[in-house]
Amino acid sequence: MSTSFEQGISTLKKVIDAPIASYFSSCTNCGLCSRACIFFTETNDAKYVPIRKLEPMRRIWEQEYTLLGKLKKKVGLSKPVTEQELRDNVELTFESCTTCGRCSMMCPVGNDIVYMIRRMREGLTAAGLAPKELQESAVRTMETGSVMGFPMKTLQAMVDAAEKDTGIKINVDEPNVDYLLLLSSAEVMQFNEIIGALAKIFQQAGVTWTLSSTAHEAGNPGMHMGASDIEAQMIQRIVDAAEQLNVKNVISPECGHAYMAIRWEGPNVIGRPYPFKVYHIIEVLDKLRAEGKFETLCCDDERLTFHDPCQAARRGGVNQPQRNLLKQVSSNFVEMSDSQACNWCCGGGGGMNTIEKAAPLMKKVFHRKRRQIEELDVTTVVTMCATCRNTLEEGIEDNNMNVEVKGLTEIVADRLLKEKES
Ligand code: SF4
Ligand code: SF4
Questions:
Q1: Is the CB of 401 under 6 A from ligand 1?
Q2: Quick check: 1 pLDDT over 70?
Q3: Would the CATH topology of 3-129 be identical to that of 133-289?
Q4: Residue 413 has what pLDDT?
Q5: CA-CA distance, 214 to 29, in Å (whole number)?
Q6: pLDDT band at 319, cuts 50/70/90?
Q7: To the nearest whole number, what is the mean pLDDT of the chain?
Q8: Could you tell me the fold of the domain covering 133-289?
Q9: Measured from the CB, is residue 344 less than 6 Å from ligand 2?
Q10: pLDDT tens-digit profile of 19-54?
Q11: What is the pLDDT of residue 236?
């Protein structure tokens, strides 16, 4: 028996808390969580039933914390969890779960399955079994502050380009401003027009803002790994920068899991409240719109729909701001069949889009999103998460669909009235 296996089992025993015990004891095996999960609905494979993915943890709970389970273990009716079972569980909790939370929302007895999956991942990480891609991105983020390992000089080059392009001065490490803007690695690498787009919007709205040279990204692989200590260090870096700069607000980028980490989990993970507020960038834009701080041309008749990112919409509660903004810029916005809190996952979240072994299954489950898009006959899908955007673009290309994917911030920036008139 290896030491790391023992550490994994010991961690699983520790993370089984009162909520997890109540979830296992109240599960009626109704199977409704399976109908909520794309990995089951698109494969019909029973191994992807959400609650079943937690079988090793359920057995540990039963054997350690229930009288019946202790008796069953004693007479050999309940076998100890083996090293091979933990190894096999990596496929179920890391490579076929986006932590989208749809199963948790649908469970009739309120079992928060995604919470249990995160704790299961914690046990697997302690056993040294987290996928190497997540471990590597955690190391990169700890060393550079960037999930993809972009140093500050890469961001500075983006800032210089955006300043040249827009003619607007962009602050780095400017204290006492309204907003500290965080980015995602995907924005730095693929959607780097975002800085110029936001510079235009904030200038028209008359708000002050800055980037930070010590905390420029909000991505948090520690959250995907279920490694609370790594998650906490990544959040603390942002909190330190925001406190040193004395900003009133921190803006989470178009990245669902980053928003969940810094907005909802952060204070609990670091063990204290923040002296600033955290908003998703789309919440900030909608607030400025509602206050009349910026105007856009109304309206484009391009037929478009919106993909709600699981972490920002279903789990994070940001559902209306994106619709307010879309209705301001488009006269032809149509909802997907299941939208807002009920939206189906793109299939790439929870770290899955970085795990090579998960790629074939991701392609397969994308068919749910394909059907949702095709029934609307749209030309554009808009979203507000860089991971969703990447997954949608890849799925659309794989399926030869004639649909474009756009980020909402860029669409708003494109329609700025001032820009159009100049
Ligand atoms: S939906 Fe809830 S009660 Fe039903 S099987 Fe899944 S976890 Fe158990
Ligand atoms: S969190 Fe989402 S992907 Fe994971 S088991 Fe639940 S429904 Fe499936």
A1: no
A2: no
A3: no
A4: 82
A5: 48
A6: very high
A7: 93
A8: Rossmann fold (3.40.50)
A9: no
A10: 999 999 999 999 999 999 999 999 999 999 999 999
A11: 97
pTM of the model: 0.93
Find the mean pLDDT for residues 299-317: 93
Domain 3-129 has CATH 1.10.1060: yes
Residue 187, pLDDT score? 78
So what's the pLDDT on residue 148?
86
Return all residues near 216 (Cβ < 8 A) that are at least 6 apart: 145, 146, 152, 155, 182, 183, 188
Pairwise CA distance, residues 240 & 215, whole Å? 9
Q: Give yes or no for residue 152 having a pLDDT over 90.
A: no
Task: Decide whether any atom of ligand 2 lies within 6 Å of the 114 Cβ.
Answer: yes
Per-residue pLDDT of 65-113, as tens digits, reads: 999 999 999 999 999 999 999 999 999 999 999 999 999 999 999 999 9
CA of 188 to the centre of ligand 2 (A): 28
**Residue 84 CB–ligand 1 contact under 6 Å:** no
Structure tokens at 1: 């028996």
| Ligand closest to the CA atom of residue 23 | 1
Amino acid at 38: I
- Per-residue tokens: 132: 């190497």
Give the C-alpha separation, 55 to 81, whole Å.
9
Q: Residue 30's pLDDT is what? A: 97
Contact criterion met (CB below 8 Å) for 97 and 350: yes
Average pLDDT (257-269) is: 94
Give the DSSP letter string of 255-322. Answer: -HHHHIIIIIIHHHHHTS--SSEEEEHHHHHHHHHHTT---B---B---EEEE--IIIIITT---SHH
Q: Which atom of ligand 2 is nearest to the CA of 50?
A: 5
Q: Where are the domains of the chain?
A: 3-129, 133-289, 296-421
Q: 25, 28, 97: which to mutate for ligand 1, most atoms within 8 A of CB?
A: 28
Mean pLDDT, range 318-323, rounded to an integer? 97
Q: Determine whether the shortest distance from the Cβ of 49 to ligand 2 is under 6 A.
A: no
Q: For ligand 2, is residue 118 a contact (CB within 6 Å)? A: no
CATH class of 296-421: alpha beta
Q: Kindly state if the Cβ of 27 falls inside 6 Å of ligand 1.
A: yes
Ligand 1: distance of its center to the CA of 296 in Å? 46
Sign of the alpha-carbon dihedral angle for 370, 411, 354, 221: negative
